[in-house]
């Protein structure tokens, strides 16, 4: 009896905290994609009036995540098509959502589930806050991560439903698209180079003017405020709006368990109505992998063998490193002696190119054999370093009175060069495989002559 009363009191407390959790969630979303709290409540009961609002909400949020431009005048069928494609790309596998009508007349509860899935799986709020924050410094995006497909799409070439390509595509059209893409890429690269030159001028001319000694120079925004002080009001409004959004996010994190308990009741209601058909993948994901020690008695011995093998590999790697260092020193001595003998015109330039190519290959090989390190990903602030000629431009993760962790542009360029060399070799290998495959196909065609480009 007491236990039942305690459960009833807990349910009442959760019911009183739910409006605060939903309101904090809505206020933490970007202003242009901020729904009314009543939209989520109506979606729980699958009200058709909330369907269009939810489609527009998901369209706005996913467009911001993918960095695309959007306008409110976009047709609703185009918005729905984009939302379905984006959810399919991110691995949302509930088939009921993809069967919803393209006019947005139904399915608000399914959209509520998709929205909650994005909140949990993609850390939607964190991504939007990081992407839409007010930037007062000059930043650039740095990414040295591997271009991996989402886990749900590994090992499959399946295309989203209802949007399959035609069976036949004109090769000339693909060539035209490729040429257009190359032209736009070169134009973008030229504009980026021009932007870097202008940034360098601003950082150089304002060097020593900033109150922060770590920075030492103004950013473009700060320079514009110095030239036009009346613009500070707009910047102040943006900062106040961002502060309110961050406060709502902190409130949401405190009340987040209440929201997920509420979503459990939504799932229970759908199960009672017979709208949920759990797939084998979902059951496998919920059940998880069994513990190796409980289901596999031989796992302990196998783990010990793996540990011993790892130690042996580490020892062999150290020995190989010593051997490579010794041979490299001997080879450098031979090259130095040979370079003194060969003093011909153009030898230095050729040797420099060969040396750079060999260094890139060795660095890439070392990178593949070395243990995985934390890759750089995200926005970094550009800081001009005039006191260090070897590294005049750096990337700072944050700005404070203490020395912060930073990386020089030279290191980032080196990392990207290694990645470029690896991709170039992979492309060459794929081209060779395609050439062999085309040769095998051509052998089976009588009277056809294939000329390689």
Keywords:
mainly alpha, 64% helix, 4 strands, 4-stranded antiparallel sheet, 453 residues
3D structure, described in words:
The protein has 453 residues and is mainly alpha-helical. The chain has helices at residues 2-28, 37-44, 51-65, 76-89, 95-98, 108-121, 124-131, 171-205, 220-227, 232-273, 280-287, 292-295, 299-341, 347-369, 409-443; strands spanning 139-143, 377-384, 393-396, 406-408. The longest helix is centred in the C-terminal third of the chain and has 43 residues, at 299-341. The radius of gyration is 29 Å and the shape is extended. The termini are far apart. The model is unreliable at 148-166, 279-299, 388-392 and 397-404 (pLDDT under 50).
Spans where pLDDT lies below 50 across 5 or more residues: 148-166, 279-299, 388-392, 397-404
Given the helix and strand composition, which structural class is it? mainly alpha
Q: What is the straight-line distance between the termini?
A: 83 Å
Helix content: 55-70%
Number of helices, where a helix is a run of at least 4 consecutive DSSP H or I residues: 15
Largest sheet: 4 strands, antiparallel
Give the spatial strand order of the biggest sheet.
1-2-3-4
Coarse morphology: extended
Mean pLDDT: 76
Radius of gyration: 29 Å
